[in-house]
Design goal:
- By secondary structure, this protein is α/β, with parallel strands linked by helices.
- The protein has one domain (about 15-245): Rossmann fold (3-Layer(aba) Sandwich), CATH 3.40.50.720.
- It is built from nine helices and seven strands, in the order αβαβαβαβαβαβααβα.
- Helix 3 links the parallel strand 2 and strand 3.
- Helix 2 (about 25-35) crosses helix 8 (about 225-240) and helix 4 (about 80-90) packs parallel to helix 5.
């Protein structure tokens, strides 16, 4: 009786292996911590944030030994994407979920866009999620796993002077729905679209004047918290077995008035 109850009370994320790209800092770190708290084992991807990744892994492994590991990869390198997936499976013996969180974000005013900016924004926001999903698909299908893509409320309503970023996130939204079709019924694919959660560290939205303007046009009139995004990701991975092909805005209502 007690054993049956323990199985029933067991978290859906218990011992599941989740790869979070850009999982070492900011919203990615919040997602990593939330999934780990739910019982998952975490593959923390990073590119340059080695110190933050190692510190986070040490923190999580202190809570539950051998439950987290770090993986460095440049998501703009095509060969690195499959190697990343293979390395995670080799390390943990399985892969149950992929969270495509890593993203470049900066303005690209028309007339000033070069190939470097195009390749970076399209590469991190669309190409890498696609090829990571393709590489992970066989293992995710075996595990009846899931993918969550971090999209953006501006995927449908572009930001002025951010045409490449906006179209990249628009493509990621379409990719989310396409993958739900192509990978079902064994793999669920959904997206989360953040609003004002953490302000960028540079650029137009680092300005307090611009931040106040955004919040003035947000129904809840405040910024969100990284845990708001992390909680939705955890819900889609653990508690939404009949949800696929959906993109859920976590934005304080801002998308209603865009």
């Amino acid at each position: 009786m007690g054993e049956t109850r323990n199985k029933r009370d067991r978290s859906p994320l218990a011992d599941r292996v989740v790869l979070v790209t850009g999982g070492a800092r900011r919203v990615g770190a919040a997602i990593t911590r939330r999934l780990h708290a739910g019982g998952a084992r975490l593959a923390i991807h990073y590119r340059t944030s080695a110190s933050q990744a190692r510190t986070l892994a040490v923190e999580l492994n202190a809570l539950r030994p051998r439950s987290a590991a770090t993986f460095r990869a440049d998501l703009l390198s095509q060969p690195a994407l499959k190697r990343l997936v293979d390395a995670v499976i080799t390390r943990f013996g399985r892969l149950d979920a992929l969270v495509n969180n890593a993203s470049s974000f900066y303005p690209t005013p028309l007339g000033e866009v070069g190939v470097r900016e195009w390749d970076d924004l399209i590469g991190t926001n669309v190409r890498a999620p696609f090829f990571l999903a393709q590489a992970a698909a066989p293992e995710l299908a075996r595990r009846r796993g899931a993918i969550v893509n971090i999209v953006d409320i501006h995927a449908e309503r572009p930001i002025r002077d951010y045409p490449v970023y906006s179209l990249a996130k628009g493509a990621l939204a379409t990719l989310t729905r396409s993958l739900a079709l192509d990978l079902g019924p064994r793999v669920r694919v959904n997206g989360v679209s953040p609003g004002a959660i953490l302000w960028p560290e540079s650029g137009d939205f680092a300005s307090q004047v611009n931040q106040r303007d955004v919040l003035a046009r947000t129904p809840l009139a405040r910024t969100g918290h990284p845990d708001d995004i992390a909680g939705m990701v955890a819900f889609l991975l653990a508690d939404a077995p009949y949800v696929s092909g959906q993109i859920i805005a976590v934005d304080g209502g801002r998308s209603v008035v865009l």
